[in-house]
Design a protein that fits this description.
CATH architecture of the largest domain: 3-Layer(aba) Sandwich
CATH topology of the largest domain: Rossmann fold
Order of helices and strands: EEHEEHEEHEHHHHHEHEEHEEEHHHH
Number of strands: 13
CATH superfamily of the largest domain: P-loop containing nucleotide triphosphate hydrolases
Length: 458
Amino acid sequence: MWCPEELIVAPATVAGPGLRGIVRLAGQGLAPLLNRLLEIPAPGLAGAGSPPRLVPARLATAGLADSWGALPVDVLYWPGPGGPVGGPLAELQLPSSGPLMAAVVTAVCGLGGRLARGGEFTLRAFLAGRLDLVQAEAVLAVVDARSPDELALALDRLAAGAGVGLQAVRNTLLDLLADIEAAIDFADETAPDAVPATPHWDDVAARISQCDEAITAVTAGLAARDAAAADLPRVVLVGPPNVGKSSLFNALIGHAAALVADEPGTTRDWLEARLGADEAPCILVDLPGLVDPGAGPSDAVSTAAQAHAQTECGRAAAVIVCRDATGGASSFEPPTALPQIDVLTRCDRSHSVRGLGLGIETSSLTGTGIDELRRSIRETVARLPPRGSPATVRLAVGCQAARAGLAAAARSVVSVWVDESLVASHLRRAADAVAEVTGTAIGTDVLDRIFSRHCIGK
């Protein structure tokens, strides 16, 4: 089990060339350790309760300076109890040298610190109430982002934490619980003026409704961000030139968006359209035909089109591999190892390869196989891993449980005979569900699994 008071240390910047490197430290006894590690001029580090301060210092003569010289080190120090982790935190900014940063970490461990586990700094920020669970996992999403779209979505989650609104809901539920349970406890007292013997059930119903609306607003906001078109899985039509991909694209989306001709190379740019309204939606992408890099010289436009096609293949979540029924069994292989759907196009023109199990047999002209292909795309997309963060999925499940408790409490409140104990039980279930969503009452073993996936130093 992790102790939030232990003094921990870790590099906070990636290894490699750079102007500055950062070593991060946190925990009790941090100020005395820094004064032994460094020579810090007056007035020294910020005192408890003071705002953070950037202090110029040098490696201590009796320590690291023996090997490294009196190198300058800038110390950004938060004394606590404020700050990012709710306690003492420091970032040592020094020349970006791997051996130097390793020497600093080793020296700190020799003075009583220990190497931080993965995600331990983020965990402390969470335990101190600086981050909610969705924001904490957004930190991991920021680190793991592979494209500008993924980074923008992760930063959006990080900035728009759900914890504040949900914590307010939980506080309201706890207040309601206190009122109802007080009424139960003091129902037989002879001094009803001290505690109301019976809650005002119309007011209770109104507050339950407000809590339900607040939870709905939080989950809808996160769902809207996760369902943004930039975050929908991309299903890409791939194949050699003039294989009928554009005709198939038009047939799948239901209108003529792509230019169609029998001449190879008609498609020079990629087109995209949303496919599916509510059930397993995706972005369908039509690409230029992929050619063998050694197929011969090509003009600048064709070269650019091929580059665009390769880029789109890299962004794909699944591919539809198109082969022409009139050309027999093609040796074309897709450039990715993603989930793929094999399709035979132009089956109205040839029967020579039909019935051989080479793929879904389609004809954009007659409509053969189009519905089957749509169904296969829907099933493939539905099997893809969830694109929302685990915290977002957890939030949706927890909020659904909280709303179920609120709905049961609301039904109990409007009954002819209101059972205070039953109402309190439903409200407690809703409050517990909200606590698990925000992490207020989540088990330590679950927290360990969540935060251990983060980088060391984060």
